Amino acid sequence: MSKNLESNVCEENIYKGLFEKYSLQIRNFLIYRGCELEKAHDLVQEAYVKMWENCSKILPEKAKSFLYTVASNAFKNDIAHLKVKLKYQESGASSNVNIETPEFQLEEQEFKKRLEDAIEEMVPTQREVFLMNRIDKKKYSEIAEELGVSVKAVEKRMGKALKFLRARIKEI
Amino acid sequence: MESKKEIEDDALGRWLSGDMSPEELKEFEASEAFKTYENIKNYTEGMKMPAYDLEKEFALLNDKRKGKVVQLNPMRKWTIAASIAIILGLGSLLFLMQGDDILVSHTTAQMETDTIALPDQSTVYLNADSKLDYNESSWEEEKVVELEGEGYFSVTKGDQFSVKTDQGTIQVLGTEFNIRSRSDLTEVTCYSGKVKVSDQASGAMILEPGMSCKIVDGSLVNEWTPNFDEKVSWLNSESTFHEAPFIIVIEELEDQYGVSIDDEDVSIKERVYTGTFPHGNLEDALKIVFDPMNIQYDILSEKEIKLRE
User: Fold this and answer.
1) Which residues in chain B are contacts of A135 at CB distance < 8 A?
2) Chain A within 8 Å of B251 (Cβ-Cβ)?
3) Neighbours of A39 (CB within 10 A)
4) CATH classification at residue B207
5) With contacts defined as CB-CB under 8 Å, which chain A residues touch B45?
6) Is the CB of B101 inside 8 Å of chain A's CB atoms?
7) For a Cys-Cys bond, which of A55, A139, B171, B211 suits B196, CB 3.0-4.6 Å?
8) For chain B, which residues score pLDDT lower than 50?
9) pLDDT at A158
10) How far does Cα A2 stand from its chain's mean position?
11) At which of B210, B233, B256 does a domain end?
12) Cβ pair B16:A158 closer than 8 A
């Protein structure tokens, strides 16, 4: 118990564990905000350096919010487009299927392209929530905690994001 | 325009997380838009970000960490100070080198607030038109910040901590308090813990939660009871924007107040907004956002607002 109380981020195995656990999701978070790939890698490293410099004062359970705070202070850009290309998981099946909906008919490639373009142009506050859920598979409650907003606000942003994407895909 | 009423944002959000009620789901699945949403859901499920090489990144990080432990020559310090300035990325943040000292200065303009994490993880919420300085190099020996303007301090427990203003010094031990120091007046309000306030003469007093005091022209005057709610309203909750497209500000207003804002009759495309609006008072918020932009607004009903030039 007393060991537990003393543990802080200066312990190498804890520090490394925190890097393994959070560095990728923080990189992704920066990219969703519109940060470029290399820059996002740099900013993640800077956040961890800053955590190292202050390691004796940071308890492991506070590390995540410290890292998110430093990273989001480092990249604040309300109008940024997505700069990084998203990739699709290889499904193996050849993909030129028709996407049929009551609203329109599109070839799969065209649908994907419109979807990608629309995600790029989405407002960052909606995009970050949307992709944290879709790509990082985070629950709304986790997203809400990391962004410091309510679950209700996450639900609304997700809904707005979906509406935006649908409208863009429908547009001819 | 769709003939049917469009689904609410939050309901659509709950659909994606599987939290719709069976009735809602049934209705939604019957709607024309459903298939498109389902396709979006399925295709975004398989989206991936570029690869991330954890081991390589950790090795890089280790190089950077080691670099920080080495005794630094003055040139090297400059580069570190510069890189820290980039990390925080704020126009309002300034680092100055003075001998071996790293002096950090945060300032806020009008209509702008900032949240500052001090080296010991204490947090300062800096209100508009304010300035906070401290010496990062000597922080370990002496935790002192200098404040002009107004700041709310949430101090890490167990830390001795002082705030200097033009008027006097406030000493704290793991507590929350607000200091407003404008022109010839400093007001201190204690929210938790204990705060010791000393003026420039020899006066000193200890504040407990709920107590406030003033220093006027360098001398302590008697304690008074503030309107608690009013005191912290500036930080209770608010939305802050820095050069944001105006449409985002309107959306945030809609989100915070659950209203719909009709911007059909105004041209907002090219406009950007820097500032903060409060949550919890729609009229104030509308005034704060739209007055400076020279946009008129009509409150049509509890839930509807219309903008005009």
Assistant:
1) 44, 47-49
2) yes
3) 14
4) 2.60.120.1440
5) 134
6) no
7) B171
8) 1-3, 68-92, 227-233
9) 96
10) 36
11) B233
12) yes
Classify residue B218: in a domain, yes or no.
yes
CA distance B62 to chain A (A): 9
Task: Supply the CATH number for residue B261's domain.
Answer: 3.55.50.30
* Within-domain flag for A28: yes
pLDDT in tens, B172-204: 766 777 777 765 667 787 777 778 888 877 778
Distance CA B74, CA B77 (A): 5
Domain boundary among B233, B264, B298: B233
B275-304 residues touching A, CB cutoff 8 A: none
- pLDDT, residue B84, reads 32
Note whether residue A29 is domain-resident: yes
Give the CA distances from residue A21 to residues A18, A65, A140, B53, B76, in Å, rounded to whole numbers and listed in that order.
5, 13, 19, 13, 31
* φ/ψ bin of A52: left (φ > 0), alpha (ψ from -120 to 50), beta (otherwise): alpha
CA angle B80, B85, B90 (to 5 degrees): 175
| Chain B hits for A156, Cβ within 8 Å | 9-10, 13, 255
Token look-up 């392209």 returns A113
Predicted pLDDT of residue A89: 67
Q: What pLDDT sits at residue A23?
A: 96
How many structural domains compose chain B? 3
Interchain contact, B65 vs A46, CB within 8 Å: no
- With CA atoms as reference, the chain B residue closest to A29 would be B49
Helix (H) / strand (E) element for A113: namely helix A108-121
Q: Does B32 reside within a domain?
A: yes
Q: Which positions of chain A have pLDDT values less than 70?
A: 1-6, 77-79, 89-98, 172
Do B256 and B201 share a structural domain?
no
- Tally A–B CB contacts below 8 A: 174
Residue B156 main-chain phi, psi, to 5 deg:
-60, 135
Specify the pLDDT at position B224: 60
* Structural domain total, chain A: 2
Task: List, for residues B217-243, the tens digit of each pLDDT value.
Answer: 777 776 665 544 433 445 556 666 656
The whole-number pLDDT of residue A4 equals 45
